[in-house]
């Protein structure tokens, strides 16, 4: 009759870990905002959970998506630093 509406397990530690990975990889300062979430994959054929990250460096907004649950995201899942310009959020729809 009752069910939990949030994630099945506490993901706060994983969110902090992924935030640290993003800060380290893209040299995001402590004054800049990073938002990390685990969301259901809604498109057929895609994994059931995905990790989404939105972050700012100065006035520029960036976004990245990892097709894995937040608990399994590692440093190896982060794009290489020189791809940062490709992560700029232009307001276009996601490719995937």
Layout: helices, strands, pairs:
Blueprint: H1 12-26, E1 34-40, E2 49-57, E3 60-66
Tell me what you see in this structure:
- This protein has a three-stranded antiparallel beta sheet with strand order 1-2-3, with helices on one face.
- The mean pLDDT is 89.
- It is 16% helix and 24% strand.
- It has one helix spanning 12-26; strands at 34-40, 49-57, 60-66.
- It is globular.
What features would you highlight for this structure?
1 helix, 3-stranded antiparallel beta sheet, Nuclear Transport Factor 2, Chain: A, alpha+beta, 96 residues
Order of SSEs = HEEE
**Overall 3D shape:** globular
Number of domains: 1
The CATH architecture? Roll
> Which range best describes the helical content: under 10%, 10-25%, 25-40%, 40-55%, 55-70% or over 70%?
10-25%
Return the structural class: alpha+beta
Residues in β-strands, percent: 15-25%
For the secondary structure, the number of strands is 3
Could you give a quick summary of the protein structure above?
This protein has 96 residues and is α+β, with helices and mostly antiparallel strands. It is built from one helix and three strands.
């Amino acid at each position: 009759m009752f069910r939990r509406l949030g994630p099945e397990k506490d993901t706060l530690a994983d969110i902090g870990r992924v935030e640290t990975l993003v800060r380290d990889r893209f040299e995001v300062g402590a004054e800049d905002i990073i938002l990390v979430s685990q969301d259901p994959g809604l498109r057929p054929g895609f994994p059931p959970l995905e990790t989404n990250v939105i972050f700012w460096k100065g006035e520029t907004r960036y976004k990245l998506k990892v097709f894995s649950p937040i608990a399994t995201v590692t440093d190896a899942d982060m794009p290489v630093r020189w791809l940062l310009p490709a992560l700029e959020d232009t307001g276009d729809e996601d490719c995937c």
